[in-house]
Amino acid sequence: MKKTTWGICLGACLALTSLVVPAHAAGDSSESSDSVILRHQSVGEQAAGSQDLGGAPQLEAGAWQDLLPVTGEDSARYYRLPAVQEGENINVSAQLIIDPMNQPSSRENIKFAGELVTGDGRRCASTGTATVSRDWFDRLALARLDTGAKRSDGYTGCLAQGNDEVYLKLERTGTWQADTGIPVELRVIVEPAVDPTTLSGQIPTTLPPANVTLSGAAEPISGGSGFSNATELAGESIHADSVLPFEIKYYKVHLAEGQRLNYRLTMGDSRDASANRLVTRTYSPLLAGNVVERDSAELSREDVGASVTRSTLSEVSRDLVDSAGQLSGLRTPGYYYITVVGAARDPRGLNPLEYELAVQVTGEAGGGGAWEPALDTGTGGGGVLGTATGGWWPTAAQFGALLGGAAVALAGFAGLWLLRRRRRT
After folding, report:
1. Do strands 307-311 and 141-146 pair parallel, antiparallel, or not at all (unpaired)?
2. pLDDT digits (tens, 9 = 90+) for 119-153
3. Which of 28, 89, 150, 357 is 20 to 30 A from 270, comparing alpha carbons?
4. Residue 214, number of CB atoms within 10 A of its CB
């Protein structure tokens, strides 16, 4: 009788434990992937940034990661960029990997800034900045910069007069998560010198937006969790996907010289979704965000069946290498990136926001053999850096609350068992 009673108790304990431990953590394959928020984790080799120029670690071309310290005075971190040859250009991107579940009741923000400075600490290029808040988590905390081509003909950029001493400076301010170190993902890409004899001499001009005329059934797909593992989409394809609140999905589409990216985002019928908006942005192979007419486009979850269409400003052309305007972002053939964010404010539950993504690449491909960057390595060549994705786990406080609830239930069960035993005796 005693064994039977304790067997019942053990079974109840295990049942209650299953309520506390997330099913995906326990290896339960019945847990739907749609109930777990996809999370971007930084990739690359470790690089500990220094508090001053003198101790800055050397970054070669490739992917790197670090932990950006808490907000406050003297919180900037410095990294030294590689030496390059005449005509080469250093492109740098830094993405702060913010956990939106940290301090979820905050209405404050994080401001992230990147600068390129010379050996004397002087800023030598435009500053890259991004501001993200928990209140409206609808954009990447991404800073992109480039030195300009190295020239010895009087050019006044970061690499003027043969100077190879250039540093990346990263800093975060703001009160959201001010007491928490945040991972940062860095990519250093050395863009090779362009041989002018290989250019066509025909510089593209800005084109009006184009319509996406594709129709038909959408193929289910799941976007990646970062640029390094973005899901590739064919040049003429229609796909169905969904996002949870604070989730970011990444896609990539290959463009050769002479081609243009056009895509259509359509809101599905998910008016009970936890996220309330879809926000989409577009990036070049070097993560320039100025390749379309507007920074972003969005749809409300109530806009069932409504669409927004986005087009790059023109076709890809290496003749844009010396362009000073927005079109300069289209000088590089390779993968162009689309992000879709599930923006939310105080969401309830984890109901997916469904959408359809149609891609239509126009123009004739040319320029075979041209250099293309690859964000899986940070360089122009092979190999894949590992990336990790995961789902959201409860915080310590939330987990403690769940355990507390389980403890109360177990105590009630134990009391009931003792009462029944007394009555029997």
Report:
1. unpaired
2. 888 899 888 999 998 887 899 999 999 998 888 77
3. 28
4. 15
The DSSP secondary-structure symbol of 218 reads: P
What amino acid occupies position 117? V
Distances, alpha carbon 93 to alpha carbons 24, 32, 231, 410, in Å: 33, 34, 20, 52
d(Cα 345, Cα 91) in Å, to the nearest integer? 34
pLDDT tens digits, residue range 161-176?
666 789 999 999 999 9
Residue partners of 109: CB distance under 8 A and separation at least 6: 131, 132, 133, 134, 135, 174, 175, 176
Q: How far apart are CA 123 and CA 147, in angstroms?
A: 11
Report the 10 Å Cβ neighbour count for 15.
11
Classify burial at 364, counting beta carbons within 10 Å of its beta carbon; exposed 0-12, middle 13-18, buried 19 or more. Answer: exposed
CA distance 143 to 98: 14
Q: How far apart, in whole angstroms, are the C-alpha atoms of residue 410 and residue 20?
A: 13
User: b/e map of 24-61 (b: 16 or more CB within 10 Å)?
Assistant: beeeeeeeeeebbbbbbebbbeebebbeebeebeebeb
Please give the model's pTM, rounded to 2 decimal places: 0.81
DSSP assignment string, 296-326: -EEEETT-TT-EEEEEBSS---GGGGG--SG
Q: Which two tokens stand for residue 71?
A: 């907000």
Q: What are phi and psi of 143, to 5 degrees?
A: -120, 125
